Amino acid sequence: MPEVQSILATDCGSTTTKAILIERRGDEYRLVVRGEAPTTVEAPFDDVTVGVLNAVREVEELSGKKLIGDEGRVITPSADGQTGADLYLSTSSAGGGLQMTVAGVVKAMSAESAQRAALGAGAIIMDVIAVDDGRRDFQKVERIRALRPDMILVSGGTDGGTINHLVELAEMLVAADPKPRLGIGLNLPVIYAGNKDAYPAVEDLLKGKVALRQVENLRPTLERENLLPAREAIHDLFLEHVMQQAPGYSKLSSWVSAGIMSTPNAVGKIMQTIAAQRNITVLGVDIGGATTDVFSVFRNPKGESIYNRTVSANLGMSYSICNVLTEARSENIRRWLPIEISEEELRNQLRNKMIRPTTIPQRLADLHIEQAVAREALRLAFEHHKSLARGLTGIQQQRTIGDAMTQEGSGKTLVDLMALYMIVGSGGVLSHSPRRAQAAMMMMDAYQPEGVTLLTVDSIFMMPQLGILSTVHPAAATQVFERDCLVYLGTCIAPVCAGRDGDVCVTVKVGSETVPVPFGSLRVIPLGYDADHNPLRVEAHIQPARGFDVGAGRGRAKDVTVTGGEVGVIIDARGRPLTLPQDDTASVTRVREWYAAMGLPV
Amino acid sequence: MGTAYTPGLKVSSSTVIEKTRRLPLKGTVLVKVGDRVEPDTIVARTELPGPMQTVKLAEQMGVEPAEVKAALKVSVGDTVEKGTLLAQTKGLFGWFKSEFRSPVAGKIEMLSEQTGHLGIRMPPTPVEKDAYIRGTVKEVIPEEGVVVQCRGALVQGIFGVGGERQGRIAVAVDSPDAVLTDTVITAEHAGCIVVGGSNVTARALRKAAEVGAAAIVVGGIVDRDLIEYLRETLKDPSFDIGVAITGHEPVPFTIVVTEGFGTIRMAGRTFDLLRSLGGASASVNGATQIRAGVIRPEVIAPSETDEAIRVDAPESGQLLEGTHIRVIREPYFGELGVVTALPPELQQVDSETHVRVLHARLEDGRDVVVPRANVEIIEAA
Description:
Number of domains of chain B: 3
Helix content of chain B: 10-25%
Number of helices of chain A: 18
Largest sheet of chain B: 11 strands, mixed
Number of strands of chain A: 24
Structural class of chain B: mainly beta
Oligomer: heterodimer
Number of strands of chain B: 33
Distance between the termini of chain B: 23 Å
Shape of chain B: elongated
Radius of gyration of chain A: 25 Å
Largest sheet of chain A: 8 strands, mixed
Number of helices of chain B: 5
Shape of chain A: globular
Distance between the termini of chain A: 52 Å
């Protein structure tokens, strides 16, 4: 590749479009400026490129560099080195979520696998239809019709097994004659991931009526689950089918130097790179306006690194904020607030955010509310992830016949918080929290890390752009990631167990400082950066009280290297699981104490 | 100069309105370009294929799937009535014949030799599309529908519930601050689009249903009142609005909220316009989709006069000094003002967030600083 001097990259989120300009400075690539503007999928614009140009225009204003040509499009490649960018890349999640119906032969077997494949691909499941689900055929037909899903996944039968049931499912689809939610004249995408021997008969029935695509059987034998081909097909069709429906997507496609990548895919690439390069376990999150994506790399019992990604398509901070309210319930949101607020006021405020999703909290109280919602969105998306990040999910999972018959074969979740080395937070509410300690606290409250865990955030919410850049110019992506993107917040030390308020549950010695921390409280030991702005790393001796565990066993001391950062070493002695007083006033008092310990305003 | 971050909702006494009226399936368009249509004029019609009844012939008759074809007394494409003989086996020496009759009326659509199943498509259901607004057919979309155009008043709301309805506009309160209560809703409001001020009480919602109002248009609504009313009406105690995609609720009247949730004074301009339209026939739709391809609820009152339609100049969508704005988030939620400065650099607001702001003079004379993302441009009437 010729020497690339400048890279412009945008990420079109459901709510905000972010643009970054990267330039080569001496021997390395660095972030120069960042701009953002609301995503313009609404009238009167109805064109995602308007928001892209607005964000790029902000970059132009801040950098003094001309990036938009007279014809109103991004200039790339740069002809003279002065205007435009050598590379222009973009990621997108502007089209919103994906709504699917899945169908299988046996509800507890192939239909369950199909459901897992669709959930893992980021879809909202509208219904699970199975031959044995107890409903009559015409009821299923009516249901498929009424739902108008974006896509249908059909599965069932082991290879060489039942054909008739698959044909029955296909007959049901013919009878339903489903139309896609968007657009007359398009055929509804149907992914067939069932018995390969049944495909010719299914194809005969469905050809010309739907846009049929065959992938490998997601349950080729009873004991083997093979979700990846179906997940990838869903993902491909999601990009082609749902995202292109976001107005202006085709136009944007004609501007970029490489194909537009979906935001979760791009962020996933970064998470995998971090885990691989550092040989660590990672939990990552990208919390957006409509969706929250969770990524993890944990080790399976054989010691192999397993990557999992889930997209909670209905948990987010703007479009989906009231879905967080519905799923979490208001009392779970209110429990994180350092202020008293009535139920009615909270609900009205969240509704107003839902209907005007691009607004920003101007008052501190409004920020507290959004950050409380974020804790619940993060928590729920993490629960979703844990439920799916099992065994070898996403790769080829071997199940024993016994597992398959008892349905315990989904395995134990791979997520092990005590074994987790690092949490990476991205997304507006984390990256743009006015104080980094707020981001640290949101992640601690939502994930409740155990033992010793490094906390980091994406500095300005640019992981999607760096994710796509890593596929085109890995060196530039790595350099910008290390220098400008990853912000170290510090190390969280959290003993696991419950105790009595006020009793010392852990004593931490960092350098010359020894800090005993009573149960129910938080303490911060400042630990920042060295002269080169690298986070300080020092040895720490952690002595938990009897019954408490920081990773070495109950009551056993642990010596570790802790990493500093924007906040420092945070000793979270609030117990695991973290519990809050039931009474509103007592809860507010307790949360205020924690805010004070973290140096946060209320 | 800066970009207007939130496009304003349209509130106009006279604008060109176009509505695309499209069938869910291909069908026949019943009107032509230039035709005058009323809201209830049927502009296109089609037939929704009936559901297919699967008859498991092989199983029912106790034969192998491959033997079904030989036993069939009907062919694919035949129309059958309930009770028509579908299949009959030869039996043994003419004895022990088994036969199977159609359980429904319809058309034989398919026979699967693989499963021995017969598919009978039941009679179609007619689907019609009306014009929704009074106006003129501007364009015909062959086999799908039409675009109806009119000039008239348009009020876009921020959130709504319920679908398309028509009625006369009836302003039931004296001011945009007034709360719409059950006592002011009377039997005279049957079939009307009832306009309130800053809020509508839970009792007023029930009264509106009782008298048969077509719609309620109001500045604000308390979330709990709305959700409880919907739970009660839809007989679903767990009903909630997770994402803002509405319009299909089977509610007795449509609700259009112009400002937001809580008690919020209806914007004076909106209230004055609706008051000036008192007695006029209007179309209303509560459908809201706040996601890619947003849909906002609306009240449309076509002009009574047959004035020539000319298209308005496009809106600039730019935030400039002197631009009229409305603040759409606390602490100045609902206040109107004029932009006085647009500093380019980021500024810190009370939440400690660093954002692009604007300076504005509110109607009451206060000079305030507001994040640009928290205002909407008020479009020219």
